[in-house]
Structure formats: C-alpha cells, structure tokens
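[audit] Reproducing an earlier prediction to check determinism. Same input, same settings, fresh worker. If the tokens differ from the archived copy the diff job will pick it up downstream; this log only records the rerun itself.
[audit] input (253 residues):
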Amino acid sequence: MRVEFEEIWKHQATQDKRIHELELTIENQNKQIRNLKRRCTDKEKDNIYKLFKEDSQIINPNFESEQLVGPKHNQSDVLKTQTTEIKTSLTYRRHVVNNEIPNRDYYRKRRQMNTDPVNTVAFYAYMSTHETNPGRHQTLIFDMVKTNLGSSYSKHTGVFSAPEHGTYVFTWTITSGVHSYIYSEIVINSVPFGSIVTDSEEIHDYHSATGIIVVQLNHGDVVYIRTNPNVSIKGQIMSQSLCRSSFSGWKIM
C-alpha cells in the first residue's frame, strides 16, 4: 500500500512539474504576443502619421506655414484648419483599414477639388469668304467664329482683347490665290510682332503660310492680323472648305 502511495506521489509530482513548465511556456508566449502587438501598434501609428502628413501636404502644401505665418491667423483659424486636415486624414485611414489604398486617381481628384478654377481663354475663327481685293495696311476680319471661350475675340473687328495678364499663343494662316502674294503680320497694340508671306505668284495654284507667336500680354492689350503697310500685295486671299484663312489664340498660363 505504501509503495502504491509513493508511486502516486511521484506521478503527481511529475504532473505538477509538467503543468508548471506549460504555464511558463504559455506565459512566455503571451509576453511575445504582447510585444508583437505593441510593435505592430507602434508601426501602425508611424504609418498612419506618415499617411496623415503626406495626405495633408497633398491637399494643402502650405499647411504648416499657413498656421504660423500672418497676423490674421488666430487660434480659432488654426483649430479650424487642423480639424479639416484631421477629417481628411481620417477618410484616408478608413481606406487603409479596409485595404482600399487610394490610387493616383484619388490624389488627382483631390488636387482638382482643391485647385482654384482657371478661366479658359481660347478662340478660333476663319474668313467665311474670299478677300478678293485686299489692300495695304488692312485689318483682316475672320468673321466665322468656331470657338470663343472667354468671348475675347470680336468677329466684327477681327480684334482679340486680352481679358487678363498672362502668356498667350497666337497663330494665323493665310492662303493666297492663283498668281498672288500676300504679306501679313500680327500686331499687338499697333506694333507688328510677327509676319509671314504667302506667295503663289509664279504658279497656277494656291499657297498657304502659317505664323505662330508666344507673347505675354497685359489686361486690355489688343491683337489682330493685318496686311503689311509698307509692301504691295497682289491677288486675293482665299478661304473655302479646302483651305481656310484663319486666326486663333489661347492663354497657356
């Protein structure tokens, strides 16, 4: 009986030892899990901070400077700005949590939403009929207007008036009739800026020539096309479905 008791006691001691070892193992595993969770949390915080910073900079590159510079930015203004940026970042974080990382279209749309609209200025017009007897120093009228964004070109005078300061591109095409030669120039505020010659004098055919300029204009500056005042011209200016004599321009910045 005593031998059986000793055997039971030894077995119980062995079981207790094993249980203790298992408890130690579980405790170590729990520590490792906690450490991993802490590291993941820290990493996630770092990533979220980076995403917040990048997202804020994309939406408003002057975020920090707008808070710190200028006497008009009081504490209330700063708080409103911070609140707006945090809401924006939270939207991004929801995408991250749902594994919906925004792509380039996301950023492009955000930039477009936060970009001030720019008034488009552009026009294109051509002559509806031939100019059968052009003379020197004659303003050419391109009366058939196809595009006139900003309404800055007049089909009655042939003159473009700059609606605002900026850099503009202008181009014009003149087609000369059979045995004709036409000297034309683009004029800015009565001063020639560029010129072309369209010459078909020696052949039984039409010829076309195109000029193009890039110029900086101020508000109210006028631009138009005229024949050269100092050189004689011959023949007629052609404009029909197969060869349009035209004038166009647009603001690039």
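[audit] rerun output stored. Observation attached for the diff report: The chain is about 40% helix and 25% strand.
[audit] end
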